[in-house]
Queue: 3 jobs
Job 1
Amino acid sequence: MNNHASSKPSTMKLKQTINPILLYFIHFVISLYTFLTYIPYYFLSESRQEKSNQIKAKPVNSKPGSAYRSVHSLGGLASVLYPGCDTLDRVFLYAKDKFKDKRLLGTREILSEEDEVQPNGKIFKKVILGHYNWLSYEDVFVKAFNFGNGLQMLGQKPKTNIAIFCETRAEWLIAAQACFMYNFQLVTLYATLGGPAIVHGLNETEVTNIITSKELLQTKLKGIVSLVPRLRHIITVDGKPPTWSEFPKGVIVHTMAAVQALGAKATVEDSPQNKPVPSDIAVIMYTSGSTGLPKGVMISHSNLIAGITGMAERIPRLGYVCPSGYFNTDKPHPRGEILIGGQNVTMGYYKNEAKTKADFFEDENGQRWLSTGDIGEFDPDGCLKIIDRKKDLVKLQAGEYVSLGKVEAALKNLSLIDNICAYANSYHSYVIGFVVPNQKELTELAQKKGLKGTWEELCNSCEMENEVLKVLSEAAISASLEKFEIPVKIRLSPEPWTPETGLVTDAFKLKRKELKTHYQADIERMYGRK
């Protein structure tokens, strides 16, 4: 008993001795790890900091208002990405020769579709997809070459227009490459455009051939084909539609596969290839029509090549620049509308000389410029920061400038908001807003506040407007908006804004003029006029 009792204190003493040793060892390991990892971190972060502090751009000359240019291109702007590749067909040929058997385009088969209800009440179409089916660079080149050859056999001539009205898919890119190879001027139209806009684009460009999908042919083109008198051939990228009798006489529908087969059989003598030059038009790209009918922007091969060349240097560092509030003499940094000059500036809008003159101009040295409509500011290191949108700037009665886009960006991501349009008037001192609320969120808010009624009654309720305004004001303060930027009054809209209502474009951009007209009575009410 005595021996056993005397051994217990020595065991405890041993544990007390071991515990500090173990702690010292753990501390040593952690310190060693921290030291070893700090060394590479120090040098890597130092390198990034040095690069961040470098001068990025300088004025081309000492004159006030001089254009800024990258310090790497002060002697001249880059115009080609690879030597000898000065047109889009040559760029693709270069890529095909370099990456012949590599994967280029992958398409997944849609196995099934189902509706998925989101937490905010919205319904999204969820698709179950199969494995990728890949096309190599060589595969795409052959398909594009044969398709272009087939189009020539159907009567498509070099330097004439051909339209593509199709969703984003592999066949879209194949068709585009075919047009670049054979020097067809590709007319692109948003797949979301309405009937009048589509008819306008097709008739303005006088196309005889159009490339589309089976779905768009059935849902959008079939009803307007008779309004495009020059149309002769419709090529569907995904098979023939089920019915044919409703198309006007003289209009023939082909599949893309059939046109490719026709091109594969043709000889060089039957269908000679006419190569483009850099100054030829590559694309006539129609806008979404935010200010009326869409405009066709003429883009040459050299425009696109120069643009690609400049973008290639910045792709790893691409990011979104938020707009924030205009003279090049402003202190401490020059501010004003951003003008872009260089070989990548497009040729203007197709058959729209007035709008071309408004947005494009040439200086005394023959340099072509595009007025972007964005307000920018140059930092001391030459970085250009977009701080506002010219068309969205409104000067309030007290002299403050409000960026409507900035206000909307700060509030539109609220779960309570599906869409919002800020509005201001120079004869008044505060901002108002038109709001499309989320039905589920607004209904829940109404229940919490004890408010009842139909959807329309809730949206027309002054009490509901005040409750939503409280939420907006809190979000605006959290987003660091100035007091004069925060909407003071709002109007809740029970109707969503869709392209069909005419209040947003096909790209779902706000049509401010149309929104103002639509809500004119509410504007007068919120600004205290009868």
Note: The first strand starts at residue 57 and ends at 59.
Job 2
Amino acid sequence: MTTSKLAAAPRGTARSGTLMTISAMLFVQLGLAISTGLFEQLGPLGTGWIRLVFAAALVLVIVRPRRSWFTRSSFLACVVLGAATSGMTLLFTLAIDRIPLGTAAALEFLGPLAVAVLRSRGRALLWPLIAAVGVVLLTEPWTGNIDPLGVLYALAAAACWAVYILCTQRVGDELSGVRGLAVSIPVAAVIASLIAAPSTIPLLTWEAALAGLGLAVLLPTVPFMLEIQALRRITAAAYGTLTSLEPAVALVIGLLLLHQVPGILPVVGLALVIVAGIGVERSAGRAAPPSAPTHDDPGSGAREATLERGELRTGEPA
């Protein structure tokens, strides 16, 4: 192989990883936007529940978990991860029922942003300050037009996302590949069922069930698989920087599909949150480069890449 071909191969790999990351973000936000179509029939809690139930079924079929994979500590970590996933999913669906998708996504992004700030090296107080200004501009509290309960739901989802990130690292330390999902997603579905199933099951129709199955494929199944492949192709810094743009993707999807037209100040606020996310990612401490995956553990490279990056996003509830 010539030198030019050797140089072209990494560029092509990085390009495909970038496209996969962007595609994953699009699938996430499309799934969320389309989910609102079921709100009238099932309500936001019911919509989040049916998505988690079908996602759990898909994960169990794909992963086929074995008891021997788990120790007591790894299993408990997966259970906590599932609880965080359930909270994040249900709270965010409640949020987007009350506030625009772009605003909710930016507020939820404060969770991983806070984790990244705490993990960054040196002084990083500038970025939370910029993010705080962005949130004020996003919500425009002086107008009285923002739904305070919607903001509260989004911030609670942000807290769940922060816990999700911390648990993901713990699970990634102890389990390879996607094995943790075989526990966390079913646990999330069980918790959501306790909350939403009694009021939602009487409202279910075959059409709503099929729509829920399609949404489960759209979010989180396809995005997670895309992200796993992307992490094998691009660096942690590149991944973290790309996913910092997700609130902007949410804004565009909300505009195109939900006809949510933002004002100038919310757009500026969203831009500030994105800048803060990119700034934290670029200033965060880096771990050692991940080792190449072994034949015994084909998921190890992706797992270590997940731990290496700034953890601004592991994905929507996986």
Note: The chain has a mean pLDDT of 81.
Job 3
Amino acid sequence: MELKNIVLPNNRTRVRWGWLKKTLMAIGASVIVCSMLLFMTPWGNDLRTNLAEMVINTQHREWAWLLVGAEKRDDMVNKMQKQIDVWGVDKQHDGLIKLDKRKRTASELIKVVDIQDEIHKIPTWRGKKMYVYDPRTIRLVTTSHKQEGEKITDMVKRTGALAGVNGGAFDDPQGLGNGFAPIGFLMSGGKVILTEYDGSVKQHVVGFTKNGILKIGLYSIDELIKDGVTDAAFWKPRIIEDGKGLITSGDGGAGRDPRTALCQTGNGTIIFLVIDGRQPGHSMGATLKEVQDIFLSEGCMNAGFLDGGASSELVADGKLQTKPASRYGERRLPDGFLVLADPSSYKPDNMWEGLTKIDAGGAYDNPGFQQEQAKLHGKVEHSSSPPKPNATHKPQAGKGTDQPSATTPRTSSPSPTPTKGKSTAKPTPSSSPNEDRTSSVKK
């Protein structure tokens, strides 16, 4: 019998196809099991909700529908905003703060310590805590650049400050803004540098009186002036009022993110907390409730948040002490709260005075983005001058940006005519400080 022309099956081929089938079946089974866990169990529902909260508080909030659906996403956003407004309504009792007015040297004014999550076996977050023992040394410092924000490290160096953190909200197109379009208002040295709204309109406030009392909550500019507030900016939410935590259930509804927060204890000491986030292996960020618990353990009477996300940072000893989540490093910002040994030495800058249009920037004038694109396309930049704004829409004041940003999802930019003092532009019917101008965290 002739056998030489018969081709026998290749055992290696059969083994290879058998392994591939088993792998595909295992993957398919895993997908089915994971889907059932995520969509058919309370644990999975909680996980999807927590992830959606984190997405909602970034510039990509529209993608949260993939986790919970569009209807629930919108419901979550509305509930979060309403709750934040409720937390800010009641007026705090300033008489509960008994300020320690003893004189201190520059070296005695602040103390910076490391802090990390001590609840979980593997810490979920890390950051810095800064004590400021005389709140009267804190000033809101604004950018010294025309049409551009300024890095906090540069602000600290320019003013000779002992330390500083990022400040209030700003319009941030696609997370690539130039830091020159503040949202809400700015007060520094007793002057209203810029405001979007009439002096009688209540806005979310973080600020300090001339006597060093921290004010947090919903206040109008007229009320701030009456109460002696000298330095303030727009941000939210308040989480402690008169020594009582306002988050009584859940984690605060904003997921884990980088945070910048502050509080005042009964003796007047200010505690700034800056927590890194969005960095697996280093720090994922903290929840609102975790920050509240830290402040309550310190005996804080009133507490709230400043801008967060990629803007969160703390500078001390002339150096950046934290690790910002921004992919391009330290960001340009419109303002920051700085600690000065001689606060009277700082004279507020008003780079917005006389402007009829505020450009929030974008990809076209973001140095980090431009350098990244040049490398990707194999181009070498021979000029340090910023590219001309011909590739990206240039937002005008009052017009907003094409895409939702981290600080201002689908919102307008500051008023067409930024004004100082009490003569301020009134909000349009479609624009209100109680709208979701900013998320409870940012970028």
Note: The first strand starts at residue 110 and ends at 116.
